[in-house]
Amino acid sequence: MNDQLAVVLGLLSVAIVMFAINKPRMDAVALIMLTALPFTGVLSMSEALAGFSDSNIVLIAALFVIGDGLVRTGVAQSLGDWLLARAGSSSVMLLMLLMVVVAALGATMSSTAVTAIFVPVGLRIAQNTGAAPSKLMMPISFAALISGMMTLIATAPNLVVNSELVRHGLDGFHFFSFTPFGLVILVLGMVYMLFAQRWLPAGDGARSGQGGRPSLTEWIKEYDLSAREHRLRIGEGSSLVGLTVAEARLRDTSGASLVAIERAKKLLQPHANTELRVGDVLFVDLFAPNANVSAFRQEFTLEPLPITGGYFSDQLQEIGMAEVVVPASSTLVGDTLVGADFRHRYGLIVIGLKRGTESLSRGLENQQLHAGDTLLLTGPWSTIRDLQSNRRDFVVFNLPAEQDEVLPVSGRAGLAVACLLLVVGLMISGVVPNVQAALMGCLLMGALGCVDLNTAYRAIDWKTIVLIVGMLPFSLALDRTGGVELAADGLMYLVGDAGIYLVLGTLFALTAVLGMFISNTATAVLMAPVAIALAKDLGFSPYPFAMIVALAASSAFMTPVSSPVNTLVVGPGNYTFGDFVKIGVPFTLIVLVTSIFLVPVLLPLSP
């Protein structure tokens, strides 16, 4: 061992220790190593920074943006609803469908991103079914990790291993080279999870609110709103046709508040000068104590339509609620709700008033407002979000848990899916490089309004990007100083005379164990060159060895800190460190055995 190699290995050891104790955070460790490596004389500063120009780094960043587009447009939420509809009352079918969908979506985007998408989906499913979140969160994390074994772009370690093959002058893996292994392991994972459910903590069923926040259902009950909402279509000959909302004076003549108007399948916020048309669907709140809906319909020739959610909660994406408190300094104190003219001043209507513990939901129009009154407002979410800026007249007291389910960009899910399919199609066909296909997808999503530049920058997990860039120089440094050959020689000495299965098994185990202490991406950076060198020494094709490293790097099932995927589900699933050890270690052994027997069959060992 030469002096330069000793210094590089010393830096690597320091990095592993800091990764293991998580101090400082991983991206900071990567930056420290990137800064320190040029001092060894092995690399220049330009070579240390070369990772920032690596096409795989740009590809990973682009995939984060594409994943965010799928979240913002509601693709993930629609998947959750579809899962519930297809699974029915079968918990077995739900578990299997959930894992299949997570793995399928994760095959084209970051496993961390897909887990972030499906944690709220899983919590929503748990809430709707009464199941314990712990029964769904670990299957989600396992499926997301397995998704990394599905395609070339599914996870960063695959791209790192592929990049190492290319760096050695070899052809890289194809888009679907990983798929046969991933499908087999996914099936094993689903069967394993069906039996492992009994070992997961029982926990409590998901509650209606999140983080102690109230739900719309609770407000509907608390303010007695359930019998007040009506959907009414304006018919031919209605006296409302041609009138503006201000001219119709529904509040004054009939004790009705117009919450929203549906026109051509789009929900409109009613303004004073909005003209009413034949076929408009009115979302009406009849708040007057003696309001008669039948007389109201007959008077204005309105056709009743069914309500599918309590107080328009089926229109959750457009219509929201908020509780606000009237402070003593408010200009509203002493005014009536009619005089306050909330619709004109704030774009919202008051549907409930609470004075102390007493809730008033009818006869509100003539109630004088007092300091300390709590008002329940309804209207468009965009307007509700703007309430935060008004601190003089009222203070936002509560926003419902359902606010988290509101899509920033609704109605564009089909466009987002089309962009994703285009990217995948271009990658499969090889017409353009993978990174160019991903960038085209990002630009197209931006042009179609699925994402914007600000959200795109926020969507990228810069910590992951910096971690990969900071650790990539170690691969080159170890290669130049003979560290890769030394590691390969060490493995050769230990298992070189053994059968190929033991060699592959040892390589898998070493990669998986190393991944318990450092990120799977950093593990791939370190182990990929070792695997290729070992294959060369043994006279075998490098592809089975590189595939073993990639599969082992994604097998981060054993601890909650093995991967960000696991870390994301610890809180929602209420897991302990021991839960992951108990469930993850046996399954990692299953994946190890499956991989060492399957890889030589599908990827010939002969060079």
TrEMBL record:
Record's subcellular location: Membrane
Residue intervals passing through the bilayer: 30-50, 57-75, 95-119, 140-161, 173-195, 413-431, 460-478, 498-531, 543-563, 583-605
Membrane topology: Multi-pass membrane protein
GO cellular component: plasma membrane
GO molecular function: monoatomic cation transmembrane transporter activity
Protein source organism: Pirellulimonas nuda
Keywords, alphabetical: Membrane, Repeat, Transmembrane, Transmembrane helix, Transport
Domain (RCK C-terminal) ranges: 217-302, 309-393
Name of this chain's protein: Citrate transporter
Keyword ATP-binding assigned: no
PANTHER family, A to Z: BASIC AMINO ACID ANTIPORTER YFCC-RELATED, RESPONSE REGULATOR
Taxonomy of the source species: Bacteria, Pseudomonadati, Planctomycetota, Planctomycetia, Pirellulales
Keyword Repressor: no
Short name of any one Pfam family annotated for the protein: TrkA_C
InterPro entries: Cit_transptr-like_dom, DASS-Related_Transporters, Na/sul_symport_CS, RCK_C, RCK_C_sf
Major subcellular site: membrane
Superkingdom assignment: Bacteria
Example of a GO biological process term: potassium ion transport
